[in-house]
Design brief:
Elements: E1 14-18, H1 21-25, E2 31-36, E3 40-47, E4 50-57, H2 61-71, H3 77-85, E5 94-95, H4 96-100, H5 105-110, E6 117-119, H6 136-161, E7 166-170, H7 178-191, E8 197-201, H8 207-217, E9 229-230, E10 233-234, H9 243-254, E11 260-265
Parallel strand pairs: 2-7, 7-8
Antiparallel strand pairs: 1-11, 2-3, 3-4, 5-6, 8-11, 9-10
Helix pairs in contact: 2-6, 3-6, 6-7
Length: 266
Amino acid sequence: SESNRPRGDQWWTSKKVQRDNNCLASNLYPYLLVSIGTGVSILRVDGPRKHERISGSTIGGGTYWGLCRLLTGSDSFSDVLDLAMKGDPSKVDMMVGDIYGKNSNALEKIGLPSDIVASSFGKLVAKPNPSEGVKEEDLARALLLMVTNNIGQVAHLNAKLYKTQKIYFVGTFLQHNVISQQRLAYSIDYWSQGKMEAQFLKHEGYFGALGAFLLNQGIEHDGGIQHHKSNGKDVDSKHRKKRQTRGKLHRRTKSLGSILSTSSAS
């Protein structure tokens, strides 16, 4: 229920909206692909086989899980995500309202709500005993939001720099991670003033492996067959007997758009 939600992020909500194939097929390129695993890689994609890694970050899923192993007693990544769902980040983060007051006229001047984060983990600075009144779940949630906010900021700035309005977030960090998906959706919408949109894949944790498989198999795409070279010789003839199979795989890859879904702020 609403009354049971942590106070630290009551000011934002989002929901996933399923997209159909027609919506995805029209004006797909260019887009930004943000892969969040242990670290973060950001690629600009301009078409089939046309992509470039343009940026990244060392602050990713490995950062979160590594610090959580120090801060909590969780035994697995999924356990710490469950723990974070119960946390209240406002016990750890310094909020704008902690600086200006929750009903201050200054809030109207700066245009920020009182419940937005001013400094991650900043509330612990002035406490004589920083751990007093703070639970493991509060630390887990505050840290998750800190890492996610950083990823969202880097993604937005690169999308702005490379003039891409669509941003697809993938990677195992997002599996069963509703908090980060909602925060990324809100952040991209907020920072871009509604001009950009964070989008997510239904099976977000498998697309790196799937992409590597398709590239290795030489799967056909709209631009033709991806030929492989070995010692300067075209070895595509070795795969002629497999083209029927590859054709089936090609048809399947063209339907991958059906598992895309978009999470947007509401």
